[in-house]
Amino acid sequence: MRRLHARYPFLRASREAVQDAEVDLGQLVTEGGPAVERGRERVERALLAGTVASEGRSSTRAELLSYPVARVLVSLLDTPGAVAKYANAEAALAHARFTEDFDDDAQLKSTDRERLSLDRLLADFDLSGQVRPTGEGEFLVDVTAYLKLASALEGERWRLVARELHDGVVPVRRPELYTLLREAVRRRVADDLPLSVPEGVADALAGQVRTLKDAVADVELRATPDVVEPELFPPCVKALLERAPDLDRRGRFALVSFLAGLDVDTQDVLAFYGVETESDADSVEYQFERLADSRGAAFPPPACATMQAFDLCVDRDEVCADIGHPVTYYAERVERAGVAVDADAGTADGD
Ligand code: SF4
Question: Domains along the chain?
Answer without folding.
Answer: 3-190 (1.20.930), 222-341 (no CATH)
